[in-house]
Amino acid sequence: MRPNVDIPWSIHGQIKQYAQANEITIEEGYIEALKTGTDQLAIPDESARTTLSREDDWLPFGPWKITSQGDESPDINDVTTCLSHFYTPEQPVKISTRRRDISVGELESMLATLQARTRISDDWFTIHQLGGAWVGRGLTNFAHGISTVEDLFAQADFPLYKQGSAVYIANLPRESEYLFLRMNLSRRGGRISNFQLTFLLDGYPVGGREYYKIAQRLGFSELFNAKEHHLPTLRAGLEGPLEVEVVERITKGSDTQDDPSVSGLIIENPFQNGTNWATELSWDDIPDGFYQNEAEAHTDVLSNYDHLYCELNTHHRLNDDANYRMRALSATYLSGLLERNHIWNISASVDW
Q: Which DSSP state fits 68?
């Protein structure tokens, strides 16, 4: 027989908070509380979850400003991201959801929880405006970018639209599964609209608690059904290595290290050097001609930005004398996943 006892609401609240923090049911929370006592429950400090930590061994740079061709390509919907080593799933499937406007503070708190409880290997973001963008790596830098977007837009020396857009791409633990965040940013800062969450998965069926956990950490209560998509990819293989013009070398490790390693480069965009790249681009096997036509109609996006980011195939020490060469370049068209924008992800193969 179960005892009929009154439990104080403060105890109910503690157990509910513990269950939510550890992603277990209320019933499981009560069982653990009866076994160990509520004073032994590891209930996290909520204030500590609103701050993102900075990992010195990752690529702590950004947002870096990159201008576009300005009046020659003024479309706010043309966005280029640069997630390195982007692997197109063999059978790409999309699940997504949307929510109402939120504040920047709310999103920062959500990102802190996501960082603390989700394994994400690679990530990249673009904060886009009419005449340029700010790009970078990592949740911490992304949160910093959206929290200072008013200053970024105010200091921009290129044309602006009434709102900007941001795209965040993260590689989930499986090689061909990705998390996408897309949102509109007010030029006045403070508010985020049209906040969209999308997963790109490799094949059917779509399931598993992990995706729903991530969605809940970002404030979404449900996910829409999965849809199959084809992601056209343009690949430019070079007959010989192309010398690249380096604008900035990106180091991996703390700024206080005596000799950090160079892991990435900001380079001049080779699509703007006068070479007829269209003759070197060849399609992979794409069964649906519609996606090929869409991609071909928007290849101008590939030459939109003056500079590109490249992840080095092998890192080297900062003091090494390196001569950088590009051997191949690929671009994946992501418009079908993120709907409103013409979005490409560019990945360049560079060694030294």
A: B
pLDDT at 192: 92
Q: Which residues contact 188 (CB under 8 A, 6 or more apart)?
A: 150
Residue 46 pLDDT > 50: no
Q: Based on the domain organization, do 171 and 217 belong to the same domain? A: yes
Nearest to 170 by CA among 105, 124, 104: 124
CA angle 144, 65, 315 (to 5 degrees): 85
DSSP secondary structure code for residue 210 in this structure: H
Are 282 and 305 in a shared domain? yes
Ramachandran sector of residue 189 (left: φ over 0; alpha: ψ -120 to 50; beta: rest): left
Is 0.90 topped by the overall pTM?
no
What are the distances in angstroms from CA 30 to CA 3, 38, 118, 119? 14, 9, 25, 28
Does 53 reside within a domain? no
d(CA 104, CA 146): 7
In a domain, residue 144? The reply is: yes
Residues 40 and 69 in one domain: no
Residue 149 DSSP label: H
pLDDT at 39 over 60: no
Say whether both 222 and 298 belong to one domain.
no
The interaxial angle of helices 104-117 and 209-217, nearest 10 deg, is 150
